Amino acid sequence: MADEESPAYPKVPRSTINRYKPRGKYDYASIHDIVNTMPIVHVSFPTLDPEDPFPAVLPMIGFMASFENQAAGLDEALDLYLHGYVSSRIMRLSKDGGSGAEKGLPLTVAATHLDGLVLALTPNSHSYNYRSAILHGYATPVTDHEEKVWAMEEITNSVLADRWTNTRVPPNKTEMTTTQILRVRIVSASAKIRSGEPHDDRKDLKDEEMRKKVWVGVVPTWIQYGEPKACEYNLAGNVPDYVKAFVDGENKEGRRKAEEAAMDGG
User: Fold this and answer.
1) Which of 8, 148, 178, 193 sits a CA distance of 20 to 30 A from 115?
2) Candidates 1.20.1070.10, 1.10.10.10, 2.30.110.10, 3.40.50.720; correct CATH number of 21-263?
């Protein structure tokens, strides 16, 4: 992972890891990688309904990038772009900034990878290997046409690499009108990462009879993409090489990360 000298988000009370502090990460690279390799992020926002005290939560497609610096790496300052329908509640609220003290609708965004089931000697010591990130920021609609099309391309390719240029593009007027992109300026964020084997109590480790009966270890876990299936109206022939390459590459990388996490001494 990134070292302590890497650019990082500021530690503030809402983002500081308090339990298992060594698992906490604040550097850009760790946090941005978790978000950009997760197909779905969960976005929480205030509804501003005086009759309903609960914030809303939506699963959304998001991607971290920089329109001003399109060559920026994961270890540089990035914005979060979210894709949605123009008349949805979150998009409507973002137009006037909601109740945020700064310009924009205040959001909390969560992304989590499950890397393994950690099976210990006792239920209380069971755990997961995981990589999770929580981000806080202010969302505003993207109104510039060039930035909007760029963001739509980035988000599409985050779903499946090279998909944008292998579809009917550019989007038509109706698609551009009904689609809204939010740019989220991140003000604080943190990640929490757990890897390695189970951590059992010393008392249980001394009980050899019990250890002979209870299997302990890690079940590596990752997203597995299946064999692509053509739909009924497909006329393009066999599965394209770029789709095959994406499926194979993601499956191999997911497995590699999960198995490395299982063997990690962290």
Assistant:
1) 8
2) 2.30.110.10
